[in-house]
């Protein structure tokens, strides 16, 4: 009985350090996204800032889109990690691989922005497939952690076991988004002008894949009764 408390405290510290490390890496990666924009020269004589923004619109849009997507992915990832009370080797390596993809994303985003801005080059150089493929990998790795936790419920807190994220529709988020990201990458290779508008499809997908309202209310009610 006396040894259980120190072991629980050690597990809590280990989980906290894993979450803090993950948050720090994501914070650095999402900040590095802006570096390609820093290299854009200020307007010269007879130029306007709007002209500069128009000339580099592909880079600006790639930065904004990637920033928001990473923030949303971090939110979902953080929700998963906040629901664990311990982790094993599979969680560690899946999370580490997720972070590797996140750290590489600023590099891919910079290349994708330059390629998008130069429409004459088209998308056949593979940059679009690389960028959207990286987003697909991030989505799958995040889902991999959630799937593993469903098969190892002893790693979860009691409250996390009642989370609506465990619903069947929510577990489809990673694979569905990964497939959609890969589809955008393929389309970008052959019709970059069409692919420019495909990210708008993420909005209805997010609405469709979020937990149903009655499902959330049922979980909340169960939680209140449990407390």
Overall tally of structural domains:
1
Major sheet description: none
Based on secondary structure, the structural category is mainly alpha
What is the C-alpha radius of gyration, as a whole number of Å? 21 Å
End-to-end separation in angstroms reads 24 Å
Give the rounded overall mean pLDDT.
Answer: 81
Order of helices and strands: HHHHHHHHHHH
Helix coverage percent:
over 70%
Strand content of the residues, in percent?
under 5%
Provide tags for this entry:
about 230 residues; mainly alpha; about 75% helix; globular
Write a brief structural summary.
By secondary structure, the chain is an all-alpha fold.
Polypeptide structure, described:
With 227 residues, this protein is mainly α. The protein is 74% helix and 0% strand. The protein has 11 helices and no strands.
Topology summary:
Elements lengths: L3 H29 L2 H4 L10 H7 L1 H25 L7 H29 L9 H25 L16 H4 L1 H18 L1 H4 L6 H8 L3 H14 L1
Helix pairs in contact: 1-4, 1-5, 4-5, 4-6, 5-6, 6-8, 8-10
